[in-house]
Amino acid sequence: MGANPDFANRVYAVVTRIPRGKVTTYGRIAQSLGEPRAARMVGWALNAAPSEDIPCHRVVNRNGNLTGQWHFGHPEVMRLMLRREGVPFLEDDRVDLAACLWDPNDHLNDV
DNA sequence: AAGCTGACCTCGC
DNA sequence: GGCGAGGCCAGCT
Q1: What DSSP string runs through chain A?
Q2: In the complex, which nucleotide's C1' lies nearest to the CA atom of residue A54?
Q3: Confidence of residue A51 (pLDDT cuts 50, 70, 90)
Q4: Chain C, protein-covered positions (CB within 7 A)
Q5: How distant is C1' of C10 from CA of A63, in Å?
Q6: Percentage of chain A with pLDDT > 90?
Q7: In the prediction, which pLDDT does A23 show?
Q8: How far apart are the C-alpha atoms of A14 and A32, rounded to whole Å?
Q9: Domains with residue ranges and CATH for chain A
Q10: What is the arithmetic mean of pLDDT over A68-96?
Q11: What is the value of pTM for the model shown?
């Protein structure tokens, strides 16, 4: 990992806490970590994150667009995984954040 | 070795 | 309200 395993570790912790059928954004995660400007690093952390242990597919951008769809090997993979969990889609590569947004800051003390 | 890029977001004009 | 630049940090060319 990089020189900030602590940051990436927190990212993994947050992503793991994302309930099934819910999604969150990179910015929300970064903000919950105290680094509202480090959204890019969140994405990079997920890049090196083991997708088999971490539900990285539940992380989308602020627009609700599946930016990292090609990172799963194929765009349809991320789509099907989210759709399988009951995540509502506004478009083929865009989810309804208003319906399935899970804010880590709102669930810091809640499990 | 230096510069660009990248699963992004926020601020400024 | 739309466009541009800055910021974050590590990896790659």
Answers
A1: --S-HHHHHHHHHHHHTPPTT-BEEHHHHHHHTT-TT-HHHHHHHHHSS-TTTS-GGGEE-TTSB-TTGGGGTSHHHHHHHHHHTT--EEETTEE-HHHHB--GGGGSS--
A2: B7
A3: confident
A4: 6-11
A5: 25
A6: 83
A7: 97
A8: 9
A9: 5-102 (1.10.10.10)
A10: 94
A11: 0.93
Using DSSP bridges, classify how beta strands A94-95 and A89-91 pair: parallel, antiparallel or unpaired: antiparallel
Residues A103, A81: Cα–Cα separation, whole Å: 20
Question: Cβ of residue A40 near strand C, that is under 7 Å?
Answer: yes
pLDDT digits (tens, 9 = 90+) for A9-46: 999 999 999 999 999 999 999 999 999 999 999 999 99
**Can you tell me the distance from the alpha carbon of A22 to that of A12, in angstroms, rounded to the nearest whole number?**
16
